[in-house]
Amino acid sequence: MLAPSDQFQDGPFSTAQAANAERFALWARVLNKWLLGARGRNLGNETFQASVRLRVLPEIRFGWGAIGASVYDRTRDVIAQDNDDLFLFLNLGGRFVAEGANHEIELAPGQGYLMGCAETGSHASPTDGGILTLRVRHAAMKPLVRNLDDRLGTVLASDNEGLRLLSTYLRSIGETEPLSSTASRQLATRHVHDLLALALGTHGDAREAAREGGLPAARLRAAKTLIRRNLFESHLSPEFIAGHLEISPRSLQRLFEADGTTFSAFVNDLRITQAHAALTDQAAHGRKIADIAFDCGFGDISYFNRKFKSRYGASPSEIRFQARER
Question: Is CATH 2.30.30.50 the classification given to domain 1-149?
Answer without folding.
Answer: no
